[in-house]
Amino acid sequence: MSGSAMIAYETSRDGITLRAALAGELDLADADEVRDNLAAAAQASQCQVLEVDVSNVTFIDSYALGALVSARNTAAAAGVTLTLVNPSPPVGKAIQVTGLSVVFGLSL
């Protein structure tokens, strides 16, 4: 990643879920790279679920939210369900304000 956002991946023991942990600031500077990285992981994985942990995301802007929606759509086209889990306060607020909780499988 060129900016401050980072992604770490881990596959569940049963091989059904690929977990991606996002950390740092997610904004215009990193959004396209994060989108492409998540989409590629979904397409390359044999997993059925891509679970993106956003508990360590300290900032998110609207462009980055759009990038996550795009990654979700690409994953869905590959037969993978992308969900967000453990939203940090900034992510939770952004998702609540935009009404994207249903899109990402969150109940806020």
UniProtKB/TrEMBL annotation:
Transmembrane portions of the chain: none
Domain STAS: 22-108
Family: Belongs to the anti-sigma-factor antagonist family.
Designated name of the protein: Anti-sigma factor antagonist
Organism: Actinoplanes sandaracinus
Lineage: Bacteria, Bacillati, Actinomycetota, Actinomycetes, Micromonosporales
